[in-house]
Amino acid sequence: MKKWILLGAMMVIILGVVVYNTKFFYPPLPIDSVSKKEVLETLNDSSKDMAKIAKEDDYEWYIARMDQSNRFESVKQMLSQKEWDYKTQEGSGYFFEKNDRKLVVYTQMWTGKYVIVSIPNDWKD
């Protein structure tokens, strides 16, 4: 009987480690080229509030930490460094202008702590 209890406890521990390491409990990502674990490691290894996670489907994808005091400020700051002027927000879209060009950046809450940001590839031009 003790062997079965020990075996069951070991299985629960192994399953817990697997679930934690794969970040199974997080929602799905809108991109396929990176795993949830890679996304979180990228942000945790960065000293900034926002980190690039992939380039996929004509977009650059970023993850940003969110809190109530700086909600979406990281996105605005990054784009303003490339001379994009913030104009307005409509839903999850942020509208920017630079000379005669327009740019729409989309955001998606991934969890209560993180937001996924997609920016068209040509924003740095």
Describe this structure in words.
The longest helix is centred in the first third of the chain and has 21 residues. Helices cover 31% and strands 34% of the residues. The protein has one domain. It contains three helices and six strands. Strands 1-2-6-5-4-3 form a six-stranded antiparallel sheet, with helices on both faces. The chain is α+β, with helices and mostly antiparallel strands and 125 residues long.
Counting H and I runs of at least 4 residues, what is the number of helices? 3
SS-based class: alpha+beta
Ranges with pLDDT <50 over ≥5 residues? none
Q: Roughly what percent helix?
A: 25-40%
| Number of β-strand runs | 6
- SSE sequence, one letter per element: HHEEHEEEE
First and last CA, distance = 68 Å
What is the structure about, briefly put?
By secondary structure, the chain is of the alpha+beta class. It is built from three helices and six strands, in the order ααββαββββ.
Write the layout of secondary structure elements.
Elements: H1 2-22, H2 36-45, E1 50-56, E2 59-65, H3 73-80, E3 85-90, E4 93-98, E5 101-109, E6 114-120
Antiparallel strand pairs: 1-2, 2-6, 3-4, 4-5, 5-6
Keywords for this entry:
125 residues, alpha+beta, 6 strands, elongated
